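can u do me a favor
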């Protein structure tokens, strides 16, 4: 059953009605956070509205944000009741936060989305529909027909495209998708080798593509926009981490 919702900002989206008496949720949504106090409430409230017909949990993994993100998350859980909050000792990185979420998810279907609203929550029902069709991995993509990027300068576009090209060149398994740098995806738990994951930086999907057993993969187009609040994760250090990570994966014959 498809449910339609009209959100406060007049966005219209659909969700799949799978409410039934089950012990575990149909979906676990991992949200890694660091200093996202200006964004986390908007994200959570939109997700709650969009997935209101679905049994799901939100897993917020916060790196001890000094701006009070964790406290806001606890307030949101008092309101909605389906949020797990894990506060780590410090800024340990986005990818390791996602792995922490994997380890604490109760669903057989797990999704990852950034807290900064650069990934529109309206894409989640579309991704879940693809998972329901039997796909193992669904990736939100900027680089397939219908996908695009708004308000990026030439340098940032060059870095993103270049990273994808390098991944495709040195890691053949990544050639199965056009946007291996995406930070928004949905995957079946059974295809993740959680114990084998040892990601560097914030491009967790690259690691998953090298090590997971996904047979059926599909990309769903979306529009990527600049974050409205806070600072971007992209930095020279993260670019360096990407190259180190890619080289380690490329030099491991079992993952190439």
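np, heres the sequence
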């Amino acid at each position: 059953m498809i449910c339609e919702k009209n959100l406060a900002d007049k966005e219209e989206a659909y969700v799949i009605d799978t409410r039934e008496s089950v012990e575990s949720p149909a979906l676990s949504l991992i949200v890694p956070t660091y200093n996202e106090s200006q964004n986390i409430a908007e994200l959570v409230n939109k997700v709650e509205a969009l997935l209101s017909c679905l049994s799901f949990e939100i897993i917020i993994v916060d790196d001890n944000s000094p701006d009070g993100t964790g406290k806001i998350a606890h307030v949101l859980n008092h309101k909605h009741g389906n949020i797990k909050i894990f506060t780590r000792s410090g800024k340990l990185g986005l990818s390791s936060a996602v792995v922490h979420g994997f380890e604490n998810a109760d669903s057989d279907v797990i999704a990852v989305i950034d807290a900064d609203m650069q990934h529109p929550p309206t894409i989640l029902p579309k991704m879940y529909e693809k998972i329901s069709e039997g796909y193992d991995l669904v990736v939100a993509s900027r680089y397939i027909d219908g996908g695009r990027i708004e308000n990026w300068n030439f340098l940032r576009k060059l870095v993103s495209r270049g990273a994808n090209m390098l991944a495709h060149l040195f890691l053949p398994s990544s050639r199965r998708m056009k946007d291996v740098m995406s930070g928004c995806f949905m995957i079946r738990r059974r295809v993740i080798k959680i114990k084998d994951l040892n990601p560097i930086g914030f491009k967790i999907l690259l690691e998953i593509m090298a090590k997971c057993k996904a047979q059926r993969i599909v990309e769903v187009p979306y529009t990527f926009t600049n974050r409205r609040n806070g600072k971007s994760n992209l930095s020279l250090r993260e670019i360096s981490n990407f190259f180190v990570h890619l080289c380690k994966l490329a030099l491991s014959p079992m993952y190439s």
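The chain has one domain: 2-255. hope that helps!!
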